[in-house]
Amino acid sequence: MSEENLVGQTIAGYRLLKRIGEGGTAIVYRAEHPERGQAAVKVLRPRLRQDPVAVKRFLREADYGVRVEHPNVVKTFDYGDADGLHYLALEWAEGEPLATFLSRSGPLAPDLTGTIVRQLAAALSTAHRAGIIHRDLKPANIMYDPATQTAKLLDFGIARDAELSPEDRLTRAGFFVGTLQYVAPEALSGELVHEQADVYSLATIAYSLLSGALPFTGRTPRELFQQLLSQPPTPLNQAAKGRKFSKDVESAVMAGLERDLSQRCKTVDEFAQAFCTAAEQDTSKKEGFLSALFRKGGQ
Known about the structure:
The protein has about 300 residues and is an alpha+beta fold. Helix content is about 35%, strand content about 20%. It is built from seven helices and eleven strands.
């Protein structure tokens, strides 16, 4: 449990109404602003407020959010230091984390997966053009509204500037950042990664949405680490019993999971185009088959 609860207080015009989540570095509140309405406000934990590296990382996340403007990115309203509290105010995104939706719904159809992948790729492409690599793309960092089938990317907490000089890095060389289940193999060395690392993570999300499983089955971090470095991912059509997809869908997903960077899709747009084309063809074939079956049954 957090050592601090700021519910009822007002920070830079945002009245904190309810604590809705917390992580290692910040506590998140639902808030109300007189002009912007509902918002999500992240507040740096008390124990980190005197840590210059933690503060710099928190402010860098905010700055990256401001630089990436896209309909499928949770908008950053403002950030700063108010009476010693470092805060980050964000758009209130309807829906729930994609991870929560997936756990409730189960695996998704290729066409819906394609809808989500296309939106995320557009958001990431905007970030990449701004020189920002996300590095922690995963369902828990994506807000999804089932009513509108809208996905929004958030949490640039460990993103990095592609143009950042080595002396300005906030992660020590030799230490990888990210979530092991979704991180690209090349990130495990702790060296700087590029756009293709986000391609890998996006392909892992597509794999998970389609199958309800992950490309590697290691049960411990050590086992997962070793598999990522030395083994090929489980083919999509072998991931879950009863879940089979066209060769084109499987090939598109696995191309995004290639360990060899020369074989992996070069950009998120390239991956999304290949996957969505395959998913649309897969859906059309199934609809055509069902339509023919219905006509035959009605004769």
